[in-house]
Amino acid sequence: MPGLHWLAVILVGRDQQHDPPDLASMHWWTSRGARASFKRDEQGKLLLQVALQWGGWVLHVFDQGFASSFWLGLLFAFTLRFVLRWKKEYHFVDAQGNRRAAWKIARGKRGWQERRVWDCRRHQWVTASILALPVRHPDHPEYPLWLVIARRKGGLPWYLLTNELITCAEDAWGIMFAYARRWQIELTWKENKSELAFQSPRLWDWEPREKLLLLATLAYAFLLTLLSPCYASLCRWLLRRYCHRTGRHCRQAHAPFARLRLALSRLWQTFPPRWERLSDRSIPVISVTLA
User: Fold this and answer.
1) Which helix (DSSP H) or strand (DSSP E) does residue 242 occupy?
2) 242: β partners
3) Are 126 and 150 in contact (CB under 8 A)?
4) pLDDT band at 6 (very low <50, low <70, confident <90, very high)
5) Of the candidates 203, 188, 204, the residue with the CA atom closest to the CA atom of residue 257
6) Does pTM top 0.85 for this prediction?
């Protein structure tokens, strides 16, 4: 909706096939009316919350929209570990003390190592190479940084900025794979908009709208928990019984979120929940009976 914006923090592990994402935070804000706020203010509040909760226990991954001197200053102030995709035309100070654009620093330098990696977005194997160079930001010269350049045939290179120490090619590959897991946040936006209709709540007042979105967030977090390996047999039964598909794409999908939501909806339509009340307290509970 016009004026409605939201931010999300997704917690993912290193294993792309077996570790489902966890919803850590979902925050909404508006740029209009009496509750109007600014994008960087809301992002800074959420970053502070994450920094206080996790600190340096996790590696924070950001897309190109956060590539700025201001955001780097916040990351340095909170002493966070980060991987930030940088824009190639933004400048750094290289090891020789020259200030140049990121793509010019990496121009003409061969990769340290090549390997075949799986492109989860296009579902194909690609040949990629990795290179890491020490750099410093002109506005924050006291902090050493590494510029990791990930190249692949037929695609644009990634310029990844990190404060993690890079000593060998395996360290650089780890930074590249950490950023590749950022694709989970893109899937989050897709699922929230298409499956849970986050983009079009039909409510005008802010408080009822926020309550509706919070309920949808709980539903989304619950569905993500069902993607855990410990519920694999339950998910297979749900998909087989209430959302059976025979296509190759459906069989190969590792996290069939859309089918799982539809199967659970059909299950509850077949066996609607019954509302009961406890005898000693007036708290409604849900009882579901399965055949």
Assistant:
1) helix 232-242
2) none
3) no
4) confident
5) 188
6) no
